[in-house]
Structures are given as structure tokens and as C-alpha cells.
Amino acid sequence: MRIPAHRLLPATALTAASALLTGCFAGAESTTDTGADGKRIRLAMMQPPRSGLSPLSDDAFKLSRWSTAETLVKLDADGDAEPALATKWQQSGRTWTFEIRDGVTFHDGTRLDAEAVVRSLSTAATASPKPRILDGVELTAKAEDADTVTVTTGTEDPLVPQRLSSPQLSILATKAYKGKLVDPLGAGTGPFELTKVNGTSSATLDRYDDYWGGKAKSPGIDVKFVPDGTARAAALRSGEADIVEAVPVSQAALLDKDLITEVPMPRTNTFYLNTEKGVFKDASLRAAAREAIDAESIVKGVYEGRADVAEGLLGPALPWAAELRTPVQRTKAAKADGQTITIGTFTDRAELPEVAAALQQQLQKAGFKVKLEIREYANIESDMLAGDFDAFILSRATILDSGDPAAYLYSDFASDGSFNISQLADTSVDKALKTAGETRTGEARRKAVIAAEAAVLGTDAAVPMLHERVIQGDAAGVVDAAHDPRERELVTADTRVR
């Protein structure tokens, strides 16, 4: 395979990556411990914790990917709910009844019971902000007896089991809850116990031998947070890491093809436009920006063909979306005439700064003056959510939480959505989102979701550009690492290193 010249690393870059790796992986003496029953798993992850590994934040997905925190239900490949910490459930109007699995203990040795479930769910339901899976949802939990919990919503909700599969609704031991803080250290139920967290640099997990689902095949996991994509790829190439999360597209061609796995995923690279203030308050200028974007050239130039050009917000990971989608009514575009816009994005996903540079050129060619503001995600998120940019480029998972895209659409585009980057407040969009959320699962719900997508696209509050593919690196000795398009699983009880 010919490597494009612009992808070749100069010697200075290689030296810098090696120095970074030395700092990231040195001193982890436990990572080389083979023990009597196998090697510990050395894991290089992209983003460091943002909220002290609180399950009420996006850090919950780290806890899930490390198999340390678990939920009442989990999702199968089709997005349907199946048993986890709950063995069965049934619906009666607004109330769902869940039977709690017997014989489960938390990592501190205490027993899983209905009260523990209620405490975890109630903390999430009353948090500020709420976990996004509960956006627009009024939820209360009650212990009926030691092994039975009822969950009641303000209106009848067909998606309660799927919502309860979100890692942000993980069930933790009493010790985890300290005032407004939630600390998962030693408080999960999974096959691995979180035993140590070193700020934003590393974490250590050890096998929990009393796990209800059977003993894990690896004695533990040593996690290093490595935001630099070049360094993560170099860790796989040099043998310093066993599993590498989110290998950048720019590095994939430099790795042995047998060490990487590429899977189309429900993640859309979207250009969000601020509809509340600034240049893009004008719908015709939003339309002008949409027409200026050449997504195909971005896929070829930045992603080297390892992505799919977007036709809508929902991509090929949900094949039914393309089958149901119809043409969208759009505003006529005005001509840009030197208006200055500021576009924000972040460095944590290596491709995004390149996407921003490509968009800058495309929009300038269309008549806009474009400034870029690029920081680490932790340092830009609050400004992004406050609407401080004219536009923002975000790589966004579309079914991450519930296996159903209605929750993502509500979170990002409802007037009261907790992740409404576009500051969109549109009554027709709100109505379509409400209908989608209330429709029972199946074909009717899928049609309602696509109608909601069309309502959003019609505002040009968001321009979907491309659908990403996850690229994961697994060393030659890794067995049974998960390759999960939803990014919920990575190291499981079956994962081991030969």
C-alpha cells in the first residue's frame, strides 16, 4: 500500500511520539505481570476522564468499556434490551417492574438489592444536568421488595428498558454516593474492579473473583489516557499497548492491517450552526453554508476513504434510515458577502482539526470569512454548549445511549435538549421529536424518527457531513477484545492476552 506523502512522519514527530509514549507507559510495573493465569491487558484510551469518572457524565462509557460498572439491562446487536443486573421486566402503563438478579455483589462485598438500584437511578434522575438519556423524561424508582424495583415515568414510555441500558445509569454500591459526587472506585458489579485512578493519566483495574457472571480470563487492566493519536498508534506498533482505542485515520495506513479492525459505526461528523445569534441566525445563510460544504472531498482527503458521505444525520449503521428517508424541504440559500464566522472544534479526535481546515477553505470560497478556534474538548465544551461559536464541528454518536436515535435527536435539537449546540428552538422540530419519543418500538417508531430527522435537516441547524468508522488496534496476542460500534464494550470478561 502506498502511504500518502503528507501522512509520513518526520523524524522530529517520531521522536516526540516516542517521548510521549515513554511518559505514558513507563512505570506501570503491573502491565508486564503475566502471573499464573495470564497477562494484564495494557489499554491506551483516547480521552482522559472529564468528570472524575462519574457515571453521570460521558465518563460512564469508560466504566462500561472496562467492564467495571453494569446496568439493569444491556442491548443486543439489534438494539433490543436483554437481561443484565435485571433478569426480567414487564410494563403496565407508565410503570415498569424489574426483577433484580440474585447472587450479585458489589466490589466492596455488599449485596445488590432493590434499594441499591433505587439509589443509583434516583441519583441520576435528580442530577443537574441529567444524563442525556433522561432528557425530557420524568423518572422515579421505588423498591417494592428486596429484589423488585418499579420504574415509573411521567408519560407512558416504550423505551424504558433501552434507557436503563445506558452506562450513565450504571448501578453502584452505596459507598459511591458522597453528597453530589459519585465515585465508582471499588463500587461496581462487573468482572473488573476499579482499584486506582491517577487523575487524567491512568487507571488500574483488577479482576473481581466473585463476579456473578464467572471469573474474567485476564487478571486485570492497566489503562493509560493518551490523547495524542500518533502516540496511541505508536504504542500498538512498538508493543507497548495491547489494545488501542480510536486509531486515527492518518495512522491506520502505517499499521499492520492485521492489527486493526474497521467497523461502520453510528457516529456522524456534523457541522452545527448557531441559530440563536450571529451570522447563522439567518436561515438563508445557514443554507449557504450547507451548499458550500463538499463532504466527499473531506472523506477522501481527511479520512482517506475510511468514512461514508452523509445523506442524513443517521448513517449506514442504521440501514433502515436510508430506506425510509425522503427529500427534505430546505430554505433557499443567500449569497455570502464577507460575513465573518468563528468555527470551533477540538483536538481529541485527530481528524477534526483537519476537517475544520477543509471547511474553512470551502466556506471562504463561498464568500465567508472564517476563523478557527481549536482546543482540547475539556477546555471547549462549556463554550460550545453556551453557544459562543457561530458553528461547531462535532463527531457525535447517534445511538450511543439507548440503541434508539430518538434520544440523541432530542438531546441535540429539542428546545430543552441538554446538548443543543445549535441553540435550536423550533416548534415543528419539538413536535416531531415528541412524536418520535412517544411512538412504540418497531416500524412506526422508525418512521417517526426519520420524520424528526427531516424536521431538523429542514432548519439547516446541523449539516451532517460524514459517518465515521471505528478503527481499533489489537496486538497479535489479544484474544476476544470487543469491537463494538456503540462504544460500550472493549475489554470483557472473555478478553485476554496470550
UniProtKB/TrEMBL annotation:
GO terms for cellular component: ATP-binding cassette (ABC) transporter complex; periplasmic space. Keywords: Signal. It holds the Pfam family SBP_bac_5. Residues 1-28 form the signal peptide. Residues 82-418 form the Solute-binding protein family domain. One of its GO terms (biological process) is peptide transport. InterPro entries: Peptide/Ni-bd, SBP_5, SBP_5_dom. It comes from the Bacteria. SUPFAM superfamilies: Periplasmic binding protein-like II. The keyword Signal applies. GO terms for molecular function: peptide transmembrane transporter activity. This is ABC transporter substrate-binding protein. It comes from Streptomyces dysideae. The lineage of its organism: Bacteria, Bacillati, Actinomycetota, Actinomycetes, Kitasatosporales.
